[in-house]
Amino acid sequence: MQSHTPSAPARLPLSALIWLSAAVLGILASALLQTLPWGLNLTIFLLACLGAIGVGWRLGAVRLTGAGRYLIPIFAALALAYVTHDAYPLAALDLLAIAVVGALMIDRTRTGRLRVAGWSQYLTVCLAALLSACQGAMLARPALADGRANPAARAARVLLRVAVGTAIALPMLIVFASLFGSADPRFGAFLRDVFRLDRWNLGQFVRDGVIAFIVAWGTLGLLAHFFGDVRPHAIHIDSQRDPTFPTPLGAVEALVALGLFNLLFGAFVVFQLPYLFSATPIGQTPGLNPYADYARRGFLELVAVAAFTLPTLLTGDWITRTPRPKLYTILSLTLLGLLAVIAASALQRMWLYTQAYGLTELRLYSTTFMLWLAAVFAWYVPTVLRCRRDRFAFGALVAALGTLLALYVVNPDDLIVRANLDLSRRAGSTITLLPPGNRVYESNFDDTYALTLSADAAPALIDALPSLPQAQACQIANALRRKAREVWAVGDWRSWSLARALATERVRTMTFTCER
Question: Is pLDDT at 4 greater than 50 in this prediction?
Answer without folding.
Answer: no
